[in-house]
Amino acid sequence: MGALKTDMSIYKKFNFERPPVGIKYLFHKPEGIKQLDKELALCEMLKEAQERGEPFYFTKENESCFGKSFLGMTGESELADGGLLGVKLEVFQDGRANTALRRQFKHLESGSVNYVAMSPLDKMTFEPDLIVLAGTPSQAEVALRATTYATGDLYESKSTSVGGCIWLYVYPFLSGKVNFTITGLAFGMKGRRVFPEGLILISIPYQQIPAITRNLNEMKWVPTGYTLDKDEFNKWEKGMVAEVIQEGRNP
To answer: Measured between alpha carbons, how far is 31 from 34 in angstroms, rounded to an integer?
Structure first.
């Protein structure tokens, strides 16, 4: 497990109520980190890392739901029940709807992950595969703006009514794309009362961490427009438009 090289101190500036968490997928057992001493569903692991305040790792024996399958910790790729579980859970009208959703699920390669290390960012000693942020809409606006600051990329959110953990912990890692969701939308997380409703969860994959961290250090977190009232904003924005037009006429 490689040592941490990226300076993550900029994330302290957010002053998140719930600390950001770094995640690492491992084939070999990590050294110097204790194993989780309980069973939890994957959707609960983030909260555990935030509240525990120190690094830990978990194995398939610690994961009590289907998360172990999504993470490639077992050979099981899906539940062979004709989609009836979703009907019994009162989430889907019939099995075909549940089965159609499962076709969109992402999985890490079976057998590729035996251990998952998690740590609050301020205690993290390894280069993470993912960073997960949990914040208010205002905090999320800054973080998401950092994802597009140097590229113009779109904000994109993918999630499903069940299997919500996939879109935070698997999809970003496989796609290299930042993903976000809102607490209160995912069935398992809502049923387990993991988080209060309305938090924005943002998952940043390792492919994006260096650029986004650099952007957070460079960009203006509070643009001038955010400091104005409505009338002032409208006047200021029109002034900027006029200024750009004038510059275009007199380059």
So the answer is: 8
Query: Which residues on adjacent β-strands are paired with residue 202?
Result: 133, 180
Say how far apart CA 204 and CA 144 lie, in whole Å. Answer: 10
Question: What pTM, to 2 d.p., does this model score?
Answer: 0.93
Please report which helix (H) or strand (E) contains residue 101, including its range: helix 95-102
Q: Which residues have CB under 8 Å from 213's CB, separation 6+? A: 6, 7, 8, 10, 11
Picking from 159, 172, 45, 58, the residue whose alpha carbon sits closest to that of residue 108 is: 172
CA end-to-end distance (rounded Å), the chain: 53
Per residue in 81-100, pLDDT (tens digit) is 777 888 888 888 888 888 88
The confidence band for 78, taking pLDDT boundaries of 50, 70 and 90, is low
Distances (CA, A) of 68 to 64, 129, 166, 188: 8, 17, 11, 15
